[in-house]
Design goal:
- 32% of the residues lie in helices and 21% in strands.
- The protein is of the alpha/beta class and 773 residues long.
- The strands form 5 sheets. Strands 6, 7, 8, 9, 10, 11, 12, 13, 14, 15 and 16 form an 11-stranded mixed beta sheet that branches.
- β2 and β3 form a beta hairpin.
- The protein is globular, with a radius of gyration of 28 Å.
Length: 773
C-alpha cells in the first residue's frame, strides 16, 4: 500500500529577542542557524533588541526557536524571547537587514570584551594583513560599552564612525559568514586607528610604526621609567614591577601612599611564578572579562614590598587588549622575558581615569615619562574590574570593564527610575520594565572631578538607554553628594533609602529572592533611621521595608573623618566603653599619639562635641587593629581591616560576648575588648589575636541568626556590606550558618561594598512603586 507523505504546516513567526544580542555576533549566528534549518526571513537590530522573522515548515521553525538560546556566540545572553505568528510573506531566503532605531530602547549595551584567541593568533601571524595591529577585534571581542554612543549598536553609533573601512574590511563586515560581520570596531592598519608617541612635555617622538613605538616603551620601562598609554576605557600608568625604585617613584608621582598596585603579566605561567593560582582563579584570569584577580602571593615571590604593602594578596591581570599583548612581545624582542608590570589607572590618586590626549598630557604631566596615544576616541571611561574567587566562583569587588553595564532583573514595575548610590565606591543604576542597568565603578564622591564623572555618566547612560526617570532613589544621608544631586533633579517622586536596607536588597536582587530574609549588613558607615551611624546590623528585610532586629553595641565616635583616618581614636572609644571610662596602661598606641591629642579627644567625647554613636563593624576592625599595634593611621579606606585579615593565623578560640534581651538586641563586645587587651599585655601574637577576633565575629553572626531564625522561622540569610570583602570572615560565616541549617546568600556578580548600593536602592524603589507608594 502506497503511503501518502505528510504535508508540514508552513508558518511565519516574529521573534523579539532581548538581552546581550547586539555587538556579540548574534545576527550572523541567527543567519547561519536559519540557513541550517532551510528557513527564510530576516534578522535586524532594533531599539527593542533583535527582531527575527522566520518562515518555513513548522517543524523547522520550532527547531530554530529551540536551538536559538543554546548555541550562540560566547558573549550572547538572551534574557527573554517573545514569539507571535504572522502571515507568511513567501520569502525565499534569509537576510540580515539594516537596523531600525525607531521606538523606545529596550536593547542591552554589551560590555567591553577582552581579545579572543582567534584575533591574537592573526595578530601574531606574519602572513596576516593584521599582523602586529594593536586594534584587531571581531564580533567575539574588542571595545563595546566604552565606544558606544547610542543604540542600536551600529558603527555609526560608535566612536569608530570617523574611520572609513577599506575594501577588505568592508567585505568582511558585509559577509555573514565572516567572524567580522558587523563587528562595529572592525579595522586594519590601512584604515583604522593608529598609535603615536609623545614625550613627557607633549612633544612628538619621531618613532613610527607600532613595533618601533612599543619597543621604545619596553626599553624605557626596562630602564626604570614610567609610561602612560591610552587603553580600552582610559589611560593606564605602568612601570617595571621588579624595580623597587620605579615602583617607589610611581607612588610618589601619583600621590598613592600605600594602597596596593595591580600587576599585569603575560600569561598564567608567569602569574604562577609569583602567586598560587587555583583552577577557578585560572579560569577567571583568562576569561572574556579578564579582571584584576586577587591571588595569594607565594613566599618565594621576589617583588618589591611597595607593590602591595602589608598584604598577602597580589592583584594580577592578563593582557586584555591587543596592545598589551604586543607590548609583552616587544619585551621578548628586547630581551626582557617574564616581564611583570605595575599596571594602574591613569590618574592622580582618587581622581577618575583620564580618557583623551589633552586631558592626559595635562593631568599626567609629571607622572609619565612617555605617552602612547591613539586616535580612537573613548566615549565612556571604564576602569579595570577587581575580583576574588570564593567557593570556586567569581566574587566581584569592583564592577567595571568586562561586566558593566550588563543588567540585573528587578521586581517588575512600569515606572522608569534612577538610583544614585552612596558616597564611596559610587555607582548609579537605571531601571525600567523589571531590568536594572548598573553603571561601572565611578569612584568616591570626594572631589569635583569624580562628581563631574558621576554627572556625565548619569547623562550618557540615560541617553544611551533612552530612560527618562520618573522616580529617583538615594541614600538617607543628606550630606552625601549623590543624595544632594538626587535632590536637585527635577523629578517629583523621590525615595530616601536606608543604607543597610539597600545592601540587603542588593543581595536579594542578585539572587532574585522574594523576602523576607534575615539580613546581616556589616560595613564602615551608613546613616541609621535614628540619626546615629550604623554598620553592624541584623535586619529582617524585604524590598518594601525592614525591621532592625539587632546590632553591635554602639560607641561614641568623635572627629568624623579624622577618626576614620586614625584608628587609635576609635580604639580609645572602645577602651573607655569597656573599662568604665578608664584606659589600661600598656596600650601600644600610647607611645604613638601625643598626649595633647588624647586630651583633646577625651574632651570631645566627654562633652559630646562633634560626636555621634556608631555600631559600625568597620570601625570595630579599626579599633582592634590599633590595639594590636597594626595600624594607628591609615591612608585609604579599609586598610586596617585588610591588615587584620592578612595577619590572622590559626586558632579556634572565641572571645566572650553577650546579647541583651531588648529589641533591637545589642551585641555587647566589651568583654571581648577586655580579653584582647589582656592578650596584648600577655604578648600573645597579633596573628593569634586576629584569628580569635575573626572567630568571635563569626560566632556573633551565627548566634544572632539562630536566635532570629527561631523567633521568625526564617532560614534565609543575606550577607552584605564592605566587611564581607574579608574572605576569612565571609567563609567562616558561610560554614557556620550552613551547619546551623540556614540557606546563605552573598553577592558575587555585584559588589557587596557600596558599589552595589544603587542596585539595592533601585530594587527597593521598584517594589515601592509596584505597591503604589
Amino acid at each position: 500500500m502506497e503511503r501518502v507523505a505528510e504535508v508540514s504546516e508552513y508558518v511565519r513567526r516574529r521573534l523579539i529577542v532581548r538581552g546581550i544580542v547586539q555587538g556579540v555576533g548574534f545576527r550572523p549566528y541567527a543567519y547561519r542557524l536559519a540557513r541550517t534549518h532551510h528557513l527564510a526571513g530576516f534578522v535586524r537590530n532594533t531599539a527593542l533588541g533583535a527582531v527575527i522573522e522566520i518562515e518555513g515548515d513548522l517543524s523547522a521553525v520550532e527547531a530554530f526557536e529551540g536551538a536559538l538560546p543554546d548555541q550562540g556566540p560566547p558573549m550572547m545572553i538572551i534574557d527573554s524571547m517573545e514569539a507571535e505568528c504572522i502571515a507568511p510573506h513567501g520569502d525565499e531566503e534569509f537576510r540580515i537587514v539594516a537596523s531600525d532605531a525607531e521606538g523606545p530602547t529596550l536593547a542591552w549595551v554589551p560590555a567591553d570584551i577582552a581579545s579572543c584567541e582567534l584575533c591574537l593568533g592573526e595578530m601574531n601571524d606574519a602572513a596576516d594583513r593584521r599582523y602586529g595591529y594593536p586594534f584587531i577585534n571581531c564580533t567575539n571581542c574588542g571595545p563595546r560599552y566604552s565606544i558606544t554612543l547610542g543604540l542600536p549598536y551600529d558603527r555609526a553609533q560608535t566612536t569608530m564612525a570617523a574611520f572609513t573601512m577599506c575594501d577588505a574590511c568592508r567585505e568582511e563586515y558585509e559577509d555573514p559568514e565572516s567572524r567580522r560581520f558587523h563587528a562595529q570596531p572592525n579595522a586594519c592598519p590601512a584604515c583604522g586607528p593608529q598609535l603615536s608617541l609623545t614625550d613627557a612635555c607633549g612633544s612628538d617622538v619621531p618613532v613610527r610604526g607600532t613595533d618601533s613605538i612599543l619597543k621604545t616603551v619596553a626599553n624605557l620601562l626596562g630602564s626604570g621609567g614610567i609610561a602612560a598609554w591610552k587603553g580600552l576605557g582610559g589611560y593606564q600608568l605602568a612601570c617595571d614591577a621588579r624595580n623597587a625604585n620605579a615602583v617607589a617613584e610611581l607612588r610618589k608621582r601619583k600621590h598613592r601612599n600605600e594602597k596596593a598596585f595591580a600587576v599585569m603579566v603575560e600569561d598564567i605561567t608567569t602569574a604562577e611564578i609569583f602567586c598560587e593560582v587555583s583552577e577557578s582563579e585560572r579560569s577567571l584570569l583568562s576569561g572574556a572579562s579578564k579582571p584584576i584577580v586577587l591571588l595569594k602571593t607565594r613566599e618565594t615571590a621576589k617583588l618589591p614590598e611597595a607593590i602591595a604593602p602589608g598584604s598577602s594578596l597580589l592583584g594580577v591581570m592578563l593582557p586584555y587588549t591587543p596592545m598589551h599583548a604586543l607590548l609583552f612581545r616587544a619585551f621578548h624582542e628586547t630581551g626582557m622575558r617574564d616581564a611583570v608590570l605595575v599596571m594602574t589607572s591613569g590618574n592622580v590618586s582618587e581622581e577618575p581615569i583620564v580618557t583623551d590626549e589633552a586631558e592626559a598630557h595635562e593631568r599626567l604631566r609629571g607622572i609619565a615619562d612617555i605617552f602612547v596615544d591613539h586616535n580612537r576616541p573613548i566615549h565612556t571611561r571604564v576602569d579595570d574590574s577587581v575580583a576574588r574567587v570564593v567557593e570556586g566562583r567569581p566574587f566581584l569587588l569592583r564592577r567595571a570593564r568586562g561586566y558593566a553595564p550588563m543588567p540585573m532583573e528587578l521586581p517588575v514595575n512600569r515606572v522608569p527610575l534612577l538610583a544614585c548610590g552612596a558616597q564611596q565606591k559610587s555607582t548609579l543604576c537605571f531601571a525600567r520594565e523589571g531590568v536594572a542597568f548598573l553603571s561601572q565603578h565611578l569612584g568616591d564622591l570626594e572631589n569635583y572631578e569624580t562628581l563631574v564623572f558621576f554627572e556625565q555618566t548619569l547623562e550618557r547612560m540615560g541617553r544611551l538607554l533612552q530612560i527618562e526617570p520618573e522616580a529617583v532613589a538615594h541614600d538617607l544621608h543628606p550630606a552625601y553628594l549623590s543624595t544632594q544631586l538626587a535632590q536637585r533633579l527635577p523629578i517629583a517622586k523621590k525615595f530616601a533609602v536606608q543604607h543597610h536596607h539597600a545592601h540587603i536588597a542588593s543581595c536579594m536582587a542578585e539572587h532574585r529572592l522574594e523576602g523576607p530574609v534575615i539580613g546581616v549588613a556589616w560595613d564602615g558607615t551608613g546613616l541609621g533611621t535614628d540619626g546615629t551611624i550604623w554598620g553592624g546590623e541584623f535586619l529582617l528585610a524585604d524590598y518594601a521595608g525592614f525591621e532592625r532586629q539587632a546590632h553591635l553595641r554602639s560607641v561614641p565616635l568623635a572627629g568624623g573623618d579624622t577618626a576614620v583616618r586614625e584608628p587609635w581614636r576609635v580604639a580609645r572609644s572602645y577602651l573607655l566603653d569597656a573599662f568604665d571610662n578608664s584606659v589600661p596602661r600598656g596600650i601600644r598606641w600610647q607611645n604613638f599619639v601625643l598626649a595633647r591629642s588624647v586630651r583633646t579627644l577625651d574632651a570631645l567625647l566627654e562633652g559630646r562635641i562633634r560626636t555621634t554613636d556608631t555600631s559600625s563593624c568597620g570601625r570595630l576592625f579599626d579599633a582592634v587593629a590599633s590595639l594590636l599595634g597594626v595600624h594607628q593611621a591609615v591612608s585609604f579606606e579599609g586598610q586596617a581591616a585588610m591588615a587584620l585579615e592578612t595577619i590572622a593565623g590559626a586558632d579556634d578560640k572565641v572571645y566572650d560576648f553577650a546579647l541583651d534581651g531588648a529589641r533591637p538586641s545589642q551585641v555587647d563586645l566589651r568583654c571581648m575588648v577586655r580579653q584582647i587587651v589582656d592578650d596584648v599585655e600577655r604578648e600573645v601574637p597579633a596573628s593569634t589575636i586576629s584569628a580569635r577576633f575573626h572567630n568571635t565575629l563569626v560566632a556573633v553572626i551565627e548566634k544572632v541568626c539562630i536566635q532570629l531564625g527561631g523567633d521568625t522561622g526564617n532560614k534565609r540569610v543575606c550577607l552584605s556590606g564592605g566587611c564581607f570583602q574579608n574572605v576569612r570572615l565571609l567563609e567562616g560565616c558561610l560554614r557556620a550558618l550552613r551547619f546551623a541549617g540556614f540557606e546563605v546568600f552573598f553577592q558575587q556578580q555585584i559588589p557587596c561594598n557600596d558599589g552595589g548600593i544603587s542596585l539595592g536602592q533601585a530594587a527597593i524603589a521598584s517594589e515601592l512603586l509596584r505597591k503604589g507608594m
